[in-house]
Design brief:
Layout: H1 2-25, E1 37-50, E2 53-64, E3 73-76, E4 82-86, E5 90-92, E6 96-99, E7 106-119, E8 124-131, E9 135-142, E10 148-150, E11 155-162, E12 165-175, E13 179-186, H2 207-218, H3 222-229, H4 242-259, H5 265-280
Parallel strand pairs: 1-9
Antiparallel strand pairs: 1-2, 2-7, 3-6, 4-7, 5-6, 8-13, 9-12, 10-13, 11-12
Helix pairs in contact: 1-2, 1-4, 4-5
Length: 284
């Protein structure tokens, strides 16, 4: 289970950076003029660290078609939100959070993440996520088997696999500002899988890890690229280099040892930081 959680962290970071790469390589087609500030991508991750607690993690990639903006962006939270975790440059409470940093002009110039827990009672939950910004694409990722997700606003893209992790993918495009994303969850999770926590000592999400491992998940999100480009054939994913694969296995083993009590928090953090630093270098 610990190795599965470690791989899910790599999946999360990898999907973020893969989406950033796709945003740079593709030219979005917009029928109407976009608002000044909008979301290029919104990733919604839904996971369970226990059968009665739903983890919700929101990752935003913003673009700005005008001059640098210093206007805060406010996100309302669902009733009952608890255990709030915020990225750098954010503030809030159980009712709403705000992104306070300037948003420079250009595409993908601001990225941030926040997460919270919601009670999952009687094997069902009606989730309403108000979106303050127009979003070019919304992706909802559900790794918990045994849970049924339904939404009139989302397209079910089916099950996908990365390593030993299976997740169900849902998508929407051109989601309007001021509208709530309505999601119904039901059923009992067959297994529990917590989403990656934002470290207390460094709340800035480490996107460098994702940059090093995004090739792992490129196959998992290839459906989105092909769907946007309406390609007829599937291109094979690039090979993952041996040294990167070795480092990722070391990180997974390190997490397993920490959970088993073989390493204390300080030792685990120090050794993991060294492995991350090596992943950041082009040749390890």
């Amino acid at each position: 289970m610990a190795a599965r959680r470690s791989r899910f962290f790599l999946l999360f970071a990898g999907m973020v950076c893969a989406a950033l790469l796709l945003a740079c390589l593709t030219v979005p087609v917009r029928a109407a003029r976009q608002p000044t500030i909008y979301a290029e991508r919104v990733h919604v991750f839904l996971g369970f660290d226990s059968p009665d607690v739903l983890n919700v993690e929101m990752f935003y990639i913003l673009s700005n078609d005008a001059a640098t903006s210093t206007t805060p962006i406010t996100f309302d939270l669902p009733s009952g939100a608890a255990n709030l975790q915020l990225d750098a440059g954010m503030a809030g409470d159980s009712r709403q959070v705000q992104y306070l940093l300037p948003i420079p002009s250009g595409q993908g110039t601001a990225q941030f993440v926040f997460s919270y827990d919601l009670p999952y009672q009687n094997q069902s939950l009606q989730l309403s996520l108000l979106q303050p910004l127009q979003a070019s694409a919304v992706m909802v990722i559900l790794p918990a088997e045994g849970i049924t997700l339904s939404s009139p606003q989302l397209t079910d893209e089916g099950w996908h696999e990365t390593e030993d992790l299976r997740f169900r993918l849902f998508s929407a495009s051109d989601f309007p500002a001021g509208q709530s994303l309505s999601i119904s969850l039901s059923g009992q999770p067959a297994s529990t899988l917590a989403l990656p926590e934002i470290p207390v000592e460094d709340t800035t999400l480490n996107l460098w890890v994702g940059a090093a491992v995004f090739l792992l998940t490129l196959g998992g999100i290839a459906w989105w690229t092909m769907r946007q480009r309406r390609a007829a054939e599937t291109a094979p994913a690039p090979a993952f280099s041996a040294w990167q694969e070795d480092l990722l296995h070391q990180m997974a083993q390190l997490d397993d040892d920490h959970e088993a009590g073989k390493l204390n928090q300080a030792e685990h953090a120090a050794q993991r930081a060294k492995l991350k630093a090596r992943l950041m270098r082009p040749n390890g």
